[in-house]
Amino acid sequence: MSEEFSRPVAGHVPVLRLGDVLLVTLQGDLHDSTAHRLQQDLSETIARSGVGGVVIDISGVEIVDSFLGRVLAEIAAQTELLAARTVVAGMRPAVAITLVELGLTLPGLRTALTTEAAMELLAQPVVSSRSGGRREESP
Amino acid sequence: MHTAAGVEARLPIRSDMDLVWVRQHVRQAAALLGFGLVDQTKLVTAASELARNTLVHGGGGRMEAAHVTTTGGIDGLRLTFSDSGPGIVDLDRALSDGYTSGGGLGMGLGGARRLVHDFAVDSAPGSGTTVRVTSWVSRPPRPREGV
């Protein structure tokens, strides 16, 4: 299985492991099939490796349409079920403006401005919003 | 204008690879016509939504891109997506957010409409769908001369 993973395939997005985090860098224009494949690859890798976090760097992505937006939201939801957290890093301002106008605010998605900030975010202890537990609100 | 060559195009939409070509062409054409980065991004995103509709719901079709100008000399980019698929039965419903017949998020048609300046759909059950969108290159407002 891990062999399958390292084989370079056309339309394949490499997933790098950095300690407890999987780092994925999306670049340029993604085919739908590539995005779907990444979605599958990621869940399998998380389940196999037991990492606690995923960082998806989209600073090289020029547009996020509703398809890619949905894939990102689904990846975040899947990783949550597999006891990991996903942070989407580096969204371009024009992409953020367009997503809001499109009507896709992706409320469940954690974001960070840079990959570095995303790694820091994942290094912080988990605050579960799901259990309705204590969440520190600023006054 | 000398931009027609890079703007005018007729592209097939038959696979997800074609969606990539559509996005690349719209990006290039919008840049050529002088659209700013945010407006380029909106146009490419709208094109991606509409092209995907053509592919998924219309069973494939094509996109035509054209350079248009107003009488006032403002440049615009017109994109026409057409298919000969089953057509849209309830257009109002198809344009509403959250409605989907294809397993998506249901933001495609209504979302695309918000990303462009002009939007027109021509569709009837059994006779395919044509969606035509146009955006205009916006210029920063400036005081009228002689005021």
Automatic annotation (TrEMBL), chain A:
Coiled-coil intervals: none
Provenance organism: Streptomyces griseoloalbus
PROSITE patterns xref list: STAS
CDD domains cross-referenced by the UniProt entry: STAS_RsbR_RsbS_like
UniProt-recorded name of the protein: RsbT antagonist protein RsbS
Gene3D superfamilies with a match to the protein in the record: STAS domain (3.30.750.24)
Domain STAS: 11-122
